[in-house]
Amino acid sequence: MTRQGRKGHWEQVYSTRGETGVSWYQSEPALSLDLIRSVAPAAHGRIIDVGGGASVLVDRLLDLGFETVAVLDISRTALETARARLGRRSGAVRWIEADVTEVRDIGTFDIWHDRAVFHFLTEAADRARYAELARRTVLPGGHLIIATFADDGPRRCSDLDVCRYNPGSLASEFGNGFSLVGSAGETHTTPWGSQQAFTYGVFRRQ
Question: Where is the signal peptide (predicted)?
């Protein structure tokens, strides 16, 4: 899918389904927060939520007192939803409207978090560009937290094919420059009650 095709798809998803009508919606991103806390620098460094969309994770990250909080998403509609929800607090967030497979520089961060973007990258070239951007972005000693559908998770989401992973196969995508230091599984319940298996990988930047 081209960049314009991807952008149009996700603008349509967020404009028609809203913040709470998407399958990945969580009222409380508990596991993501637990993993972030486990690797966060003592001085509360810089964190980016890649594909954060309208997720409430950004609200919780502001509560944790990170030096810099950034959210990257291809959908302007999703980012505007999150900004409106945060109100005045939105000024404390760096908002990046971009396709993660095409942007070349987003600065440097201690933590890169992604819940449910990477598994939409079904083309090897897109995954390679994603991994290369992560290597340029995450500082040595920093961490990459990636969540995708697990081996027994859905094969499609939001009318798109996805790739499914276990910790080992996920590590093979990020083996150059990152080492797997932890993993976790999660059964996510969608807003309409179906269950989806996710796998989380935690990587340290070498």
Answer: none
Question: Does this model's pTM top 0.85?
Answer: yes
Domain architecture of the chain: domains with CATH: 3-9+40-176 (3.40.50.150)
Cross-strand partners of 116: none
- Distance (Å) of CA 96 to CA 3, 53, 82, 128, 148: 15, 10, 12, 21, 22
